Amino acid sequence: MKTYKEKPNLQNTVVVSVAAWNDADFRTEIFRRSAEKQGIKVHFIDYGAEWQGFYQHKITNLRRELLKQKENGIRYALFADARDVVFVGSAEEIINRFALLDQGSILFAADKPQTVFPFQEPWFQKALAAHCSNGYGVLNAGTYAGDIVAILSLFDECDRLRETACQLNGMPTIPLERALIEGKKFYFDDDQFFVQILQAQGYPGIHVDTEKQLFAVFDHEYPPIRERISLPPEDERSLGTALILHSPWLSKKETEKGESLWKQWVIREKIIDPILRK
Description:
Strand content: 15-25%
Number of strands: 9
C-alpha cells in the first residue's frame, strides 16, 4: 500500500527564530507582537545571549534546537529573522499555505530583483542567475520553511563548504573554490554566503518562493497590506499573496525625531495593535 507523507500542520511544525541581543525584548518587539496577534507561537533560541555571528546562531545553534524538536516528534520548521519580519496571516493560514507549497525541499524567500548579498562579485551573480528566472529568484535566508531533515542536510552541506574553505589556498581551479577563497575573508561567519553557494551549485534541496505566495522581501516603500497593488512578483513593489513579510532595509529607517518608521507602518496597517496608555 502506498504511504503518503504527513503534510505540515499546526501540530508537527515549529516556528523558530534567533534573538541573540542583549536588548532582545526591544529588538524583537514588533516581530513578537505580530506573531501574538496571529496566534503564532515562536520558539526563540539564544534569547538575550551574546551575539557570536550569523553562522553560529543560525546554523550551529539552530541545528541543535532542530535536532531536539525532531526527537520530540516535530517534522517541519519555519524560520524567520526576529528584527525585521512581520506576520500578516494567522498560524493556520501560514501553515496551510506552506503545506500547499511544500515540495520536500526548503522553501526560501526570493531576495530583491538583481540582488546578491553578501558576496557580490559579478561572476558569482551570473552563476546564481543560471539557477534563477531572469536573475530573479536568488534566495534570502531571512525566512524559510521545510522538513527538518532537509534543513539539517542543508546545514551539513554548509559545514562541508566551510571546512573546504578552511583548507583552500592559492589559485582556485573551479568556480566553487573561487567563491570560497574570495569570500571567506569577509563572509566566513555569514550563513547566507554558504547557502547561496549551494544555490549556485544547483543544490536540489533549495526551492525559492518566486511567486511570493508565503514570503515576500521588499524595500521599495512601506506598502498598504490590505490594498495590494496587482504587480508581477518580480517587481520589488509586489507583496504577492505573502503572509510573512521581510524588510532588512525599511525596518531600520527612522524619522528626523528618531521614531521608527517601521513601527509606524505596522501600526498603521494593523499588523500589530497600538498599546493604549492609561
